[in-house]
Amino acid sequence: MGRLPLWRILITGLFAVGCTAGCQTDYRKASAEVVGHELAGQYAEAASTAAAAVTANGSGEISRVIFLLEAGRTAQIAGDSSASAEFYASAFEIVRPYLDTKPEARVTEAITTTLVNQTLAEYRGTVTERIMLSTLQAINRLDLGQYDDARIELNRARDWQQDAVEKAAKQIAQSEKALSRKADSSGIPEGKLKVPPVLEKAYSGLGNLEAYADWQNPFTSWLRGIYLISNATDDGDVGNARFDLRQVVAMNPDARPLVDPDLEAIQRRQFSPTTWVVFMSGLAPRLEQFRLDIPIPVGNVNYVAAAFPVLKPMDGALTELSIHSGEDVVQGVQLADIDAMVAADYEKRLPVIVMQEIISAAIKTAGTWAASQAAGDSGGLVNLAGIIYQAVTTSADLRTWRTLPRYIYAARMATPASGTLELRTTGGRVLGSVRVVPEGDNLVVAVLPAATAPTARVQSMRLDPGPGLEQAPSNDSEPPADPTTTSERSLSG
Question: Which among 468, 462, 429, 470 has a CA at the least distance from the CA of 444?
Answer without folding.
Answer: 462
